Amino acid sequence: MILFVSGRTDVVAFYMEWFMNSFHRGYIDTRNPFNEHLVSRIYFKDVDLILFCTKNPLPLIPYLDEFKIPILVHVTLTAYMKDIEPNVIEKTEIIEGIKVISKKIGRDNIYLRYDPILLNDKYTINYHIKAFDRLVNLVSDSVKHIIISFIDIYKNVLNNMKYLRLKEITNDDKYFLAKAFKDIINNKDMDIRTCAEDIDLRMYGYINEGCLSKELAYKLTNKKYPKQSIRKDTNCNCVRMVDIGSYNSCPHLCKYCYANYDESKVMENFSNHHDNSSLLIGEISELDIIKERFK
Questions:
Q1: Under 8 Å between Cβ of 121 and 220
Q2: What is the DSSP letter of 225?
Q3: Could you list the residue range(s) of the whole structural domain that residue 25 is in?
Q4: Taking burial as the number of CB atoms within 10 A of a residue's CB, which of 15, 20, 180, 209 is the most buried?
């Protein structure tokens, strides 16, 4: 089993103590997002690999030596300011965290996510190119892999249009940015890739393996995993992972987020979090049906 921590919320930034309490307990519970009383119980003895995904890697650092199975760390680092990412820590702190983690787990096991890319009057194509160039120069010694994506119009994006002030990103814009980004990383022993994008950038030297390919999972665990089952109109090559997060629970409150769509619910969920619970939000109740998950 591969654990995804997490695509639904930033566990590392806000719930790392809870995760480690569960890790030491030996199991973690997660609610089915479509059936709140159906709970999957995951035993860490069945976990072969953990993929951590975060905007703030600092809380993970003290625990790196505790994991005896392979881990990958994806750090999302953009050039947006507080108008778009109101509660993300200073980017200089994130970069320092990346450097520390890279020294611990190796440059090949930490990924930089420059995503999602959005355009408006402030965050223009030239802005992104200059920001990406500065970022690459700061992290190239610590990071080998970069993942980019372009903004999708989720419910939360529609709710935040007054902040985002989006301009359409045309395919020509995407091609132009993709080529510029690839030119920036040339001669730096880095690669760049997309995941679940509706545009093919392989002509510019992009890798189309996704965030975690079957090949990489096999290399790290010596086990084979099926490809993730998602919409047929996306180009995703990731393996199937088990996400232990909950939607509407990330206090970063980024205006482009797909996992939050009700900010009042976010704060309610955050207040209902308990570090010693087996669940991220709330507690197990007598109405819950717990089923052990093996894969």
A1: no
A2: -
A3: 2-293
A4: 15
Contact 188, 205 (CB under 8 A): no
Q: Give the CA count within 13 Å in the CB-facing half-sphere of 65.
A: 2
| Euclidean distance between CA atoms 182 and 70, whole angstroms | 29
Asked if residues 98 and 110 have their Cβ atoms less than 8 Å apart, the reply is yes
Assign residue 165 a region: left if phi > 0, alpha if psi is -120 to 50, beta otherwise? left
Distance separating alpha carbons of residues 45 and 42, to the nearest angstrom:
9
Query: How many separate domains does the chain show?
Result: 1
Candidates 211, 237, 244; CA nearest to 113 is 211
Q: Of 103, 1, 10, 37, nearest to 288 (Cα)?
A: 37
Question: Is-contact 19 270, C-beta < 8 A?
Answer: no
Per-residue pLDDT of the chain (295 residues; tens, 9 = 90+): 999 999 999 999 999 999 999 999 999 999 998 898 999 999 999 999 999 999 999 999 999 999 999 999 999 999 999 999 999 999 999 999 999 999 999 999 999 999 999 999 999 999 999 999 999 999 999 999 999 999 999 888 999 999 999 999 999 999 999 999 999 999 999 999 998 788 899 999 999 877 888 889 999 999 988 877 544 445 567 888 999 999 999 999 999 999 998 989 999 999 999 999 999 999 999 999 999 987 6
271 SS3 class: helix
Judge contact between 93 and 58, C-beta under 8 A. yes
φ/ψ of residue 165, rounded to 5: 50, 50
